[in-house]
Protein 1
Amino acid sequence: MDKENLYKFYKTRNKSEKIEENNVLLERFVTINYLKKYIKKHNSVAEIGAGIRSYSPEIVKFAKHVTAIDLFQENLDRLSKRIKTSNFDTLCGDIVKLKSIKSDCFDVVFVNGPISHLFKEDEKIQAIKEAYRICMKNGIVLFNYLTNTPIIYRFGLIKGNYNAFKKKHVEKDIYETYFVNDFHKLVSKTKLKHISDVSLDGLFEILKEYTNKLDKTSFNKIKQIQLQIAERPDMIGCSTHVMSIYKKL
């Protein structure tokens, strides 16, 4: 992970991010519904990757305690200004090595994106192992990440970037993408039991030029449809954002 390039990327994105766009709101809607499904009111939760699209402001409403973890203190400072509840704190740290966190600390560990900024296999495995380590026995670990196939179609076919078909990344790139089965193979290095995969946005991210033109009534219907079909196997592979859910044995 190139931390300097990543910092510059998010510094620019902070000024232009449009969280109100339908394709983003759809992903958040499905994600929040699944977080509510797996997070109980007595749970302590770690959100790793609590950047500009952090879910901590929502999670603090239905969890006992939330710790937001991010690589950049600036993101955490911004988040602290938004969340003023006593059941919330922050920690600046790198998912590859969370030295200051003891093992078996959290009931739920939500890895919100940073796995998509790692390019070396050993770093990916180490990040997964760290999420596993800080989770309590019988706890839940959720990973949000980018899948490969929709990126290929969007940037290959739609934008004419045919190099996307090669699935070749270098350190200066910002995002890494995964085939879901390959992600499961990485996770198999730990004693995490696979529960489910969730399609967070289906085809609606790929076709976001159309998704973002939907009126409120139509979009509300789409949200309910996506939630109903989110775990269908045929939906997983076409979703740009996927959540894979595991239990720590």
Note: Strands lie at 44-48, 65-70, 88-92, 106-112, 135-146, 192-199, 241-248.
Protein 2
Amino acid sequence: MKDRIMKAESVRMLQFEQVSYQYAGEAFDIVDQLSFSVSPGSFHCIVGVSGCGKSTIFRMINGLLQPKKGEILVGGRPIAGQKQYCGYMPQKDMLFPWRTVGENLALPLEIRGGYSRKERQERIEAALADVGLEGCCGKRPEELSGGMRQRAAFARTMLTGSDLLLLDEPFSALDFLTRISMQEWLLDQWQRHRKTILFITHDVEEAIFLSSSVLVVESTPIRTLREIEVPLGYPRTRQDLKRPEIVDLREQLVDLLRKQVNV
């Protein structure tokens, strides 16, 4: 029994093993023999300057791009042949305007199959209630505010049933007050559901507020992700961002990004 428990604990949610990727027409690999892993139930933000390759990592995880070399594993198994192993939420909410909010949320359930119309409706209504959008099932996306649309998009991502969620700058287009409200809301969602979250952002303060540790892209090609632990427990508040050690961490991260810009 003890051996089985130790084996289960050693399985990582996500592993990159010497992964490389090169875009057509480029003379170099934007990702070059990258290896890293994240544990089940963890929350990590990936930060780096624009165009450094952060989104390329996500596109390889979700299967939109095929690595040139190396292997990607989720739950200890290669992603090739796996289905619904991750949920992906891009920068834009990508809600189809010709579908109601409920019909948009139905998409991952329709793709998975195996649900009756009643079962789909029950799951959709429960997901909307979970993100504070009760009564919005029959509305069109244009009837929702920016924050509400992002919550609906997150609910749709949750309905994939995946334990690994990839969130690619989901709050960057929101105004400041809505963005910080959504950050607090997302932390509450994570603490309740304990999904494994990778979150891309350009905002150093956002990364610190959300992450257990920040994964920093220090150079392109990406050969390593520098992991920097955030010295805060959960739950946390925005007041924690004023603590001296957190202010120092913010400046450290800003300096790391500045060095990449000046390379």
Note: The beta strands are 14-21, 31-38, 43-47, 69-74, 77-78, 87-89, 164-168, 196-201, 213-216, 226-229.
Protein 3
Amino acid sequence: MNKKILIAGANGHGKVAADIAELNGYKVIEFCDDDESIKECVGYPVIGKTDLISDYEGDVFIAIGNPVTRERFMKKRECVTLIHPNATVSKKAVIGSGCVLMAGAVVNSCAVIGEGSIVNTCASVDHDCVIGKYVHVSVGAHVAGTCTIGDRTWVGAGAIVNNNLSISNDCMIGSGTVVIDDINEPGTYVGVPAKKIK
């Protein structure tokens, strides 16, 4: 029987998810999106709106960047995890449901990646880290060993989180930011070293 998947979100993130799904052996790839003007995405059909998620007969992946929206959709049903064949994932790591690990991503020994999280292209999460739910470790970002990152936090492209640190839920860590101290309250942080701006 052909492996079948519905990807929610006919957008850039969805395009990459479709590539990874294809590399993982899915033969039928379909999209859903609430923008009814979108009829296809990278050659795959958009078959309807996101109300299809709950009853779809096949696997489902939520390819929506906004963590609050991703969380809301993932509560509708269990979602598959997509791992690019060129990602490096320790056998001692724990990867939650509905995650995506993109090309060149590295997840090292005893790291835990919470459900619905993204470890993007060439990003790394080192040993013993605990990454919360619906987190995005962006392209080229690096989280050093034994860090804890709270739910729905976004670690921007090229950002660095030094080892043995904790970051609160609901933070935005700007691109290129270097985190050298714990971040204990939600907000937006930028700079070298990281400073809260709002």
Note: The radius of gyration is 17 Å.
Protein 4
Amino acid sequence: MIQSVYFSPAGTTKLITNHIADCLSDILNLPKEEYDFTLPEARKQTLSFSENDLIIFGMPVYAGRIPNKILPFIQSQIKGNGCIAIPVVVYGNRNYDDALVELHNELKANGCYIPGAAAIVSRHCFSDKIGAGRPDERDYTQIKKFAEKIAKKISQISSKEALPALSIPGTNPPEKYYTPKGSDGKPAVFLKAVPEIDEEKCVKCGICSKVCPMGSIHMDSTKELPVIAGICIKCQACILSCSTQAIKLTYPAFLSHKQMLEENFMERKEPEFFF
């Protein structure tokens, strides 16, 4: 069984993980299932796989690492049980830093065998200019070739235990998170920033409360307006899902960091694959 498993607030990790899973499903002629653990309710249960499963495990990169609020779920509630897993990280054209080696290590510690891994570029969730249109046709061509090589490698191994160790860039084990910088080159601190809601534009549809991966947006029963009261991981899910553009993140340090990214990370980066 091919299992597409992912955390994807902005939607691109879901797109990429499913595409890799679909390619492998076609090549290996195996059925595919999908598990989305983006929302809090989906992270209340343990995901237990079998030795016959092939898992494509997709995660977005936040500050050069796996999102720290989701890491405990991966560490405690993913049970590989001897399955084969392909760690995939998706990043917005800046850098994936230590995210892929971190995800690789966690899946291996959870009882998964890993024949390959990938770091794929997508549009940056902070800006529609950085990585615009990614993944594109060129990316998908490379992803298909990756899936073909993975399928061939799996079919040729004598045993899972015989799989050679992968050489993945990054500090191993990871030690630090990337420090966002502003347009002045100094650290930009916006951990406590939360999106603002324009009451005149808000149509009270409640979609933002349904897509928040932290469950931090609630509808105010007295005003029928969304209220942000809880952890914000800056994933942009609420902003991207709002049909009237009533939600924005206008915190000065965040906007300065966004400007810095747009000034320095527009040059195309290519996906990277490891076998």
Note: The longest strand covers residues 84-91.
